Amino acid sequence: MRVDAPASFAEVLRTEEVLLRRGAPAIHVAVMEGTTVSYGVGVPESAPYLSSAHRHGIPATRRSSGGTGVLHLPGDLVWAVILPRSDPRVGRDFTRAYARLGAGLVTALAYHGVEATWEPAPGLSDEYCPLGSRGEVLAVGGRVVGAAAQHLSGTALLHQGTLSLDVDRDLVRDLFGFPDDSLAHHLASVAEFGVRAHPKALAEGVSEALVAALGPP
What we know:
about 220 residues, 7 helices
């Protein structure tokens, strides 16, 4: 179990790549130190939101996991569960196991009085991953506060997710091309639901909850 606070997204990826190569069970949670756009392994460099990020002076970093674009703000959390492919906790249903692999997020937020659930992605955007149409998202009152994606190597599974402590809907709209003001109804941060914990303390709570939720192999 490792918590890095703060860390750049590039540092997060380097740490998780080492953990993935090692292939042993691990939990990693990091607090973002800057604004970054990350994008999935299958996204072309010509994606319009990458050009928009460049115009805004926002660095963009390719993930090894799937999905499309994600805006990370300072203080947001990036978390990961790494398990060997042979570990029974991976299971045959791992591509659909958002609620199981991300159960620690639900537990950690419940500690702060916030009821979160993993729900089917809302299908509102082809470019902004938390509002996309694939997989599941972490939602509070029907508003998305987190998402997850995966990378399966030859030896291990990386289940990587985000949790928004802040939200900049105007910037999401500018980067990803939303044509209206509906984002307020679909996108939120946990701070808007009353979570006032320091980001590092929340990260430590999330890491402990992820370990507890996974249980023994």
